[in-house]
Amino acid sequence: MANDYYAVLGVRQDATGEEIKRAYRRLARELHPDRNPDPEAQERFKEITHAYEVLSDPEKRRIVDLGGDPFGGAPAGAGGPFAGFGGLGDIMDAFFGGAGGGGATGRGARSRVRAGSDALLRVELELAEMAFGVTKDFTVDTAVVCQVCHGAGTAAGTHTDRCDTCAGRGEVQSVQRTFLGQVVTARICPTCNGVGQTIPHPCAECGGDGRVRTRRTISVKIPAGVEAGMRIRLSGQGEVGSGGGPAGDLYVEVHEQEHDIFTREGDDLHCRVSLPMTAAALGTSLVVTTLDSDETLEIRAGTQPGTELRLRGRGVPHLRGVGRGDLIVHLDVRTPTRLDPDQERLLKEFAALRGEDLPHTTRPGGGLFSRVRDAFNGR
Asked: What are the beta bridge partners of residue 219?
């Protein structure tokens, strides 16, 4: 046997469908992620849910009892060109209704227990929170297992009944006569939606679905160095499936709030600092406040506009690995726009001392005016 589904649920091989259901419900109450957060319990919950899906399906259980795997084709010994169909007789039944005019072999009822879907939560974080990591509480609105019926969907003291429309098969069949004979088609039962069971007295809390929507608070650990658009996966924190099935995953998508000073490129940070013209000419020192410290930056005399200074290791920590990015400081030299008479006089004297009182170019061939003069003289 590929998997001992009976042992997983702790029942005998000749157990009735009701005994299998009771065994699953008892284990589900104990191992459900909402009640038991232990990772081993979550894996065990998935195993019992899978075993129940197999043993509650008559056709899959028949394959298991024959020593086969319901997800791997026909039982051992049923090889040949028709192995996947259960034999040539089943094929003839499917197309012609069998020798006795009966219906085709159906796939069997589906389980009410379904795995839940994933959920997505988008959150905005500050730059420092994304850089150094943070643990925050968030409120999510998801489906959780009903605490009244514990996922069964039935009212207290009641149980499910076999569907009268499909007789528990989960599908209804129709027969058409053609020149080839009787053609049998099957479709999902509209009464039980393919489950084969109905709930005469549904749970008043969940309406028979086995789950309810509610808001809950979860704690999310954001690792240091995450970038905008990244998603953090929280296993088993998504939507609980119908019938109390296992929950999907919750993905937390992080987005970065705009910072007043810094912009981020990968793990490097960038900022701009304006310097007075005199400070750039004479040199100075200034204090730059990074994300987590104050750093003194030395400005050399004669610094030009557009100069970039790099503070190594003052950027964002690497997400996978050690170390940090850099902080690149872009210097803007600020030229005064309004001068009083004394300032204007002093600047003119300074320009005269440096020979900068008249504009000129430094390109080969002389200044601008000499090139214009040469053009008129035909040189």
From this structure: 137
Task: Using alpha carbons only, give the angle 310, 230, 268 rounded to the nearest 5 degrees.
Answer: 0
Q: Delimit the domains of the chain by residue range.
A: 1-109, 112-153+204-258, 263-335, 343-379
Interval 85-142: pLDDT, tens:
333 333 334 343 333 333 334 456 788 888 888 999 999 999 999 999 999 999 999 8
Which CATH architecture group holds 263-335? Sandwich (2.60)
Spatial distance between the Cα atoms of 154 and 298, rounded to a whole number of angstroms: 75
Give me 172's structure tokens: 């209804």
Burial (CB count within 10 angstroms: exposed 0-12, middle 13-18, buried 19+), residue 364? exposed
Residues 255-273: pLDDT tens digits?
999 999 999 999 999 999 9
Q: Report CA Rg, the chain.
A: 38
Q: Return the pLDDT at 294.
A: 93
315, 321, 330: which is closest to 268 by C-alpha?
A: 315
Structure tokens at 142: 């998801």
